[in-house]
Design goal:
Length: about 475
């Protein structure tokens, strides 16, 4: 600490993806008491270096280090609002660059395990529909403009510095091979699913934290299409897997994104996975629980090959139980989720907001800060974990612990809610609030929701998707020749 004013703190963030840049936004503002855009000219009391393995583009372009960006990423309102609170103006940047704000449930054509959702309900929540490169670019641009935040590109940690009880920095290797010692009051691991933090901590003699894995063996296959319609005002189409059936779960999503494109992701659990063959993409879509996605794709031109991702297990590292000082993990490096539920980015954003809130009340160099931060970050992650792991454990051939009686009871109740939601607004509202991470699971136990679940569906199920005339008109159009390359 010698040689610098005692009030100045140093933060070293490992990884410059969404978690890394949002962690920087969370802490760069902490001197302002978690403030707004107007507080940007606060006295800087913190230096933040973000060490990123790759070069980061200065536009919403494809980059190395983010292979999942080729797959559909929906950002629920709970995540979008957390990002906006950390970096005001980001939503406008997304929108100016062509992202769509899609109301829920009326802007979704959705076949849930309980049936087709009605669309006549008013908006309860929303999602942001955009390519992942666009989402990250806007966040990165705003975060890197904050005072005290610095990107160290094309560099990576070699090892952590510290003792058995405290992390005090890291040794960083630059692209030219030179190594540099970086001391820090707080090190944040934001290196994603491939994080090597467990090894780095073990090298310091720090006891390993427990890991929980629930793996339904999900494979994603995605392809971009030139949409045959204006994507503004176009719904998200979502055919969901049904974990209650004793067969592998298959599903798909069509996201209307910037540039007039549909980004289509299909997925299947172990035993029912899609392949990377272009020629099999449409056939896979045709055999989902409804062929609707294939019927739309018959009328659209593919813009490139199919891309596959198999790195989708739910994996939780329980860092909140660790007593180590000076080290925090945020995002996929701590809790990675099956992407089918679309929660990863929202959990990152809410975790970063929790970090900001804590840092606005207590000194990040104080004893116990890392543990308190890790607990705060863990709360939104735990909520999403319950949703994802609870469902995934039910698929055939899932790698998971045998569910307890309470888990089975919860799963049956959620299943009842999902069926009731197709015809009851009280339940739609509660479920969409929880799904978008705007409310905790407790709202599902509200007496009004319990009563609605007890009563069950109030209207007969829809016998097909609720499409508007404009959407039906696309299906009536002539199919384009199938493209296999
Ligand atoms: C197929 C798929 C679809 C998904 N769909 C959705 C969705 O619909 N909605 C949603 O919210 N989430 C979705 N997710 C999850 C989402 O992608 C992640 O939750 C999110 O990217 C986590 O951000 P992160 O910053 O923690 O990790 P990452 O985005 O993986 O970023 C990690 C960063 O660290 C860098 N890095 C890695 N190792 C090092 C190192 N040793 N040194 C320096 N830098 C390093 C990488 O280059 C990268 O920039 C999906 C994921 C997948 C795989």
């Amino acid at each position: 600490m010698a040689g610098r004013p005692p009030s100045r703190a140093r933060v070293l963030i490992l990884g410059g993806g969404l978690s890394g840049t949002l962690a920087a936004a969370a802490l760069a503002r902490h001197g302002a008491g978690g403030g707004t855009a107007a507080d940007i000219d606060i006295d800087i009391d913190i230096d933040i270096d973000i060490v990123e393995r790759h070069a980061l583009p200065d536009g919403p372009r494809t980059r190395r280090g983010l292979p999942q960006a080729r797959h559909a990423h929906l950002l629920w309102s709970g995540g979008a609002e957390a990002i906006e609170s950390l970096l005001p103006g980001t939503t406008q940047m997304w929108s100016d660059a062509g992202a769509h704000r899609i109301p829920i449930p009326n802007g979704m054509v959705c076949l849930s395990p309980g049936g087709w959702y009605r669309r006549a309900w008013p908006e309860t929540q929303y999602l942001i529909s955009a390519g992942r490169d666009l989402v990250d670019w806007a966040v990165r641009t705003r975060a890197l403009a904050l005072p005290g935040v610095r990107l160290v590109p094309e560099a990576e940690p070699v090892r952590l510095l510290g003792t058995r009880s405290r992390v005090t920095g890291a040794v960083i290797r630059h692209r030219d091979g030179t190594e540099e010692v970086r001391e820090a009051d707080l090190v944040i691991d934001a290196t994603g699913r491939s994080s090597r933090a467990p090894n780095w901590l073990a090298e310091l003699g720090i006891p390993a934290v427990r890991e929980t894995v629930v793996d339904a063996g999900v494979t994603y296959a995605s392809r971009r299409y030139d949409a045959p319609v204006d994507t503004a005002g176009w719904p998200v189409i979502n055919i969901q897997a049904d974990a209650r059936q004793a067969v592998p779960g298959t599903g798909g999503t069509v996201l209307p994104i910037e540039g007039g494109e549909w980004l289509v992701s299909l997925s299947g659990t172990r035993g029912g996975q899609p392949t990377s063959a272009d020629s099999e993409f449409l056939e896979f879509a045709r055999h989902l629980r409804s062929p609707l996605i294939a019927e739309f794709l018959d009328r659209a031109e593919p813009l490139g090959p199919v891309t596959v991702n198999r790195n989708t297990s739910n994996r939780r590292r329980h860092y909140e139980k660790s007593r180590v000082e000076g080290f925090v993990a945020l995002g996929d490096s701590a809790t990675a989720l099956n992407p089918v539920y679309g929660h990863g980015m929202s959990v990152v954003a809410q975790g970063a907001r929790a970090l900001r809130d804590l840092a606005s009340k207590s000194d990040i160099t104080s004893k116990g800060f890392a543990r308190r931060a890790q607990r705060a970050i863990g709360r939104p992650a735990a909520a999403a974990w319950l949703l994802a792991a609870g469902q995934d454990a039910a698929f055939p051939h899932s790698v998971a612990k045998e569910p307890h009686f309470a888990d089975r009871l919860t799963a049956r109740y959620v299943s009842r809610l999902i069926t009731t939601a197709c015809s009851d607004f009280t339940v739609v509202k509660a479920l969409t609030d929880v799904m978008t991470l705007q409310a905790g699971g407790a709202v599902l136990a509200h007496p009004r929701v319990l009563l609605a679940a007890f009563r069950g569906p109030r209207l007969p199920p829809l016998d097909g998707p609720a499409l508007t005339p404009a959407e039906q008109a696309v299906l009536l159009g002539r199919p384009t020749p199938t493209h296999t390359t």
